[in-house]
Amino acid sequence: MFSVLKDLGWFFSREKKRYAIGLILLIVAGVFELLPPRLLGSAIDEIVRGSITSGSLIRYIVMILALLLIIYWMTYIWMHNLFGGSNLVERLLRSRFMGRLMTLTPSFFEKNRTGDLMARATNDIRAVSATVGFGMLTLVDSTVFFSVVLFAMGFLVSWKLTLAAVLPLPLIAIAMAVYGKAIHDRYTLAQDAFGDMNDQVLESVSGIRVIRAYVQERHDEKRFADITDDVYRKNMAVARVDSFFEPTIRFCVGLSYIIGLTYGIYLVFRNQITLGDLVSFNMYLGMIVWPMFAIGELINVMQRGGASLERIDETLNSVPDVRDPEVTVPVASPDTIQFNHVTFRYPTSPIDNLTDISLTLHKGQTLGIVGRTGSGKSTLLKQLLHEYPAGTGSLTISDVPIQDISLDRLHSWMGYVPQEQILFSKTVRENIQFGLEGASDDKVLEAVSTAAFLGDLETLESGLDTLVGERGVSLSGGQKQRVSLSRAFIAEPEILILDDALSAVDARTEAQIVENIRSRRAGKTTLISTHRLSAIEHADQIVVLDGGVITERGTHQELLAKGGWYREQYERQQLENNLS
C-alpha cells in the first residue's frame, strides 16, 4: 500500500525541508491538543473537591486560550506546507508528463488513446497530489497522533481503561486490508473507463459535422450513454467499497465509547480514577475518532494514488523508439539526400511499406512523388522526419546516416505540411508565427503571399487577428491548407516537405503557389507528394510509387515519353480539366 510513497521518494527528497517543517508542526500541534482536555479534567476535579478559586479558574481559561492560539498558528503552517506540496507535485508531474509526450514518437500514440492520456494528465495526477498532501496528513494522524492520544489516555488517565476501549481496533485493521485491495483494483478499472469516455467525447466533438451530415446524432448519443453508463457502474463499484469505510469505523468507535463509558464509570465508583479523569478520557476518546477515520482515508488515498501513479509512470517510463545517438555527427547543411536501397515497415504493419527505394536529391532540387492512394508517398516523405526506427538500407543527408544526426538539428532543416492540417485555437497570425516565433507582420504577410492567401485574408472578419477556432473550424479546407503552407514558408526551411498539401485548392491557386515556390525557394530542396500532376511538372525528378516500390522515375517529359502510369494519369487529368 505504501509503495506509492517510495515511488514518490524523489519528490519528498527534493522537498524535504517543506515536509520536515510540516510534519514536525503537525505532530507538535497534536501533542498540544492533548493539554486542554487534561486542564479541563483538573478543573473539574478541583470543582468536585471544592478547591476551585477565581484565580485558578482564570488561570485555566488563559492557559487553554493560549494553547488554542499556538495550535492555530502551527496548524496554519503545517497545512500550508503539506497541501502546498500537493499542488507542487501536481505541477511537476504535469510538466513531466507533457514533456515526455513531446519526446515520444508516433508509435506510442498509435498504441495509446488520446482520451486515456487526458485522464492520466488530469484525474490520475490529482489522485497522486492528494497522496502527498491529504495522504501524509492521514498517515501521521493515523499513526503518530493515534499513538500520542493512546499514550495520553494510558499515562494521564488509566492504562486499564485505555486497553479496554481499544479492543475493537483489530476489527478496523482487518476491514481496511480487505477494502484497500478492492479499492485499488476497482479504481484502476474506473480510471480506464474514464479514459474511454474522454476518447469518445473527443471523437464526437471533432466529428460533429460528419455525425450531423449522416443524421447519426441519436446513435452517437446512445453510444455516449452506453459508455457513461459503464463509467458510472465502475465508479459506483468504487463507491460501494468506499462506503464501507466510514460505517465500519463508526461501528468500532461506537464500541469503544460503550466500553470506555461503562468501564470508566465502574472505575470511578471504585475510586481508581476521578470524575475529571473520566471527562478527560472521553475527550481523548473523541479525539481518537479522527485517527480511526484517518486509517480508512489513508488506505483509500494510498490505493487510489498507487493505482494512478502506476498509470502515470507507464507513460513517464515510455522510451521513444527513435532517439539521438550517444555521439551525433555535426552536419552544416543538407547538401544531398540519398536513399540507398531503403526498405521500411511500420512497427504495426505485417508487410513492407517501402521496398528497395534508391534515389538522390541534391540541394536546390525538387522531387515530385506520385502514385495511387496507399502507394507509400507519405511513408517515403516521413523517412526524412525520422519518426520511426530506420529500416534496412541507408538514408543519408550530406553523406551522414540520418540516425547519426541530432533530431533537433534534423528537424530544424524541415518545413513540413502534412495531409491533415493541424491548426491551433488561436489567431491566423499566431498559427503562422508558430513556424517562426516572434516573426514580424511583414514576414507573416510575405509567407501569406507565397501561399496565395492574401485575397482570402482580406475576406476574413479580423484579418490576421481572426480566430481560426478549434482545428481551424472557422476556415475552409483550402484556407486551412494555405495557413499551414504559410507556417512552413515563414521558417524558410532548407528542406520543404509538402504531403499532398495542395489538394484542397483550385487549379489556378495551385499554379500560383507552385510558381511562388519555384521563384522564392531557389537553392533550397523541396519534396512534393500529390495526386495532381500539374503540381510537380517543374520537378527536377519525379518518382512513381506503387505498393511501396518505385515503378517509374524521370522528369515530366521523360515520364510522358515512357507511356506508363504517369502518362495515363496525366492525360486523364488534362481531359478532366478541359471538360471542366
Short key terms for the protein model shown above:
single chain; 580 residues; alpha/beta; ABC transporter transmembrane region fold; Rossmann fold; 2 domains; 6-stranded mixed beta sheet; 4-stranded antiparallel beta sheet; 23 helices; 10% strand
State the helix count.
23
- Rg value: 35 Å
Q: Tell me the number of strands.
A: 10
Which fold name is given in CATH as the topology of the largest domain? Rossmann fold
| Helix-and-strand structural type | alpha/beta
Low-pLDDT residue intervals, each spanning 5 or more residues: none
In the CATH hierarchy, the architecture of the largest domain is 3-Layer(aba) Sandwich
The CATH superfamily label of the largest domain reads P-loop containing nucleotide triphosphate hydrolases
Can you give the mean pLDDT?
84
Shape: elongated
Q: Percent range for helical residues?
A: 55-70%
- Compute the number of structural domains: 2
The largest pleated sheet is described as: 6 strands, mixed
Question: Which strand order does the major sheet show?
Answer: 6-7-8-3-9-10
What's the CATH class of the largest domain, please?
Alpha Beta
Beta-strand percentage range = 5-15%
The oligomeric status of these chains comes to: single chain
Spatial separation of the terminal alpha carbons: 71 Å
